[in-house]
Each structure stands twice: as structure tokens, then as C-alpha cells.
């Protein structure tokens, strides 16, 4: 486990900094609230200027009320349509979330294990069984069998000792020449 490093700032300094940060955040939040209220008041002044009803007659007031009620009805219809769309979308989102959870439950992922795969098996799976590619480097090397080399040594030694007389003269040299030439061909 790694050792915990000591903080370079003391605990009292940390506490003071945290309290300063909280105070600053509180100020900014209050400022934001004031700005929102100002924006709301400005918007309402633009869109709905104050109505002077003192100089209006009864008929003018009725027509004004009818216009306002018509505008309210239009806004209520739009609000209802938007709420219906929102409800429909939330229902769809819930249904899709349920489907996702169902699919997760049906297909449990197995714990993966490490598997040793040879290079030949990887190539076969990638290239298919038609291509014959071998990465067995040991097969491409020349193999030297110990038994063969031992037999050759013993044969040479035994031949030399036994056939000293047979190898002497021209016939012996011819036999040695033929023996040396034979395995290479």
C-alpha cells in the first residue's frame, strides 16, 4: 500500500479556505437569484405592459378580458401539448430502460479465462482453414539427432581400426572417395 502523503496545508488553513469558498459561493448564488428576478421583471414589462383600466369603459374592459382569456387559452393549449409530449417521452424512456435491464439480465457475461492459443491457431482463425501458414519455427530448423552422430563417430573409429589393410593402396582410396561422395548426392 502506498503511504499517505502529508498535506502541505495545515488543518486550520484548510478550514479557513473552505469557509471562504462557501462564503464566496453563497454570495454568487445570491447575486444569481437577484439577476434572475431582474430578468423576469424586465421580460414581464416587455411582454405584458401594465394596463391602464381607469379610463376604460365597461365594453372596453369586456373586450380586453375576452382578448386576455383567448391568449390564456392559447398558452394553456400549448402548455398541455408540451406536457403531453414530455409525459410520452418519459414513458418511452422508462420502457427503454426496462428493456435494457431485461436484456442485461438475460445475457449474463461469463467470467473470462486466459486460454493459451498457439500462433498457428490464431492464424488459422484469422485466415481461415484454406490458407496453410505455419509459424512453427522449430520445424524449419535442421534437426541433428544425437544417435546418428554417435553412430557415425563409432563407425569411423571402428572402420579405421578394422580396415587399415583394406584401405591401403589405390582401392582403399577409391572407396574413401566414393564414400565421401555418396551421402552428398
Automatic annotation (TrEMBL):
A cellular component term from Gene Ontology for this protein is: troponin complex
Alphabetized Gene3D superfamilies for the sequence: 1.20.5.350, 6.10.250.180
Q: Which InterPro entries match?
A: Troponin (IPR001978), Troponin_I (IPR050875), Troponin_sf (IPR038077)
Cite the source lineage. Answer: Eukaryota, Metazoa, Chordata, Craniata, Vertebrata
Q: Which residues form a coiled coil?
A: 19-78
Task: State its role.
Answer: Troponin I is the inhibitory subunit of troponin, the thin filament regulatory complex which confers calcium-sensitivity to striated muscle actomyosin ATPase activity.
Entry similarity comment: Belongs to the troponin I family.
- Keywords recorded for this protein, A-Z: Acetylation, Actin-binding, Coiled coil, Muscle protein
The protein's GO terms of the molecular function aspect are:
actin binding
One GO BP on record is: cardiac muscle contraction
Pfam family, any one = Troponin
- Protein known as: Troponin I type 1b (skeletal, slow)
Give the source's domain of life in one word: Eukaryota
Check the record and name the PANTHER family matching this protein. Answer: TROPONIN I, TROPONIN I, SLOW SKELETAL MUSCLE
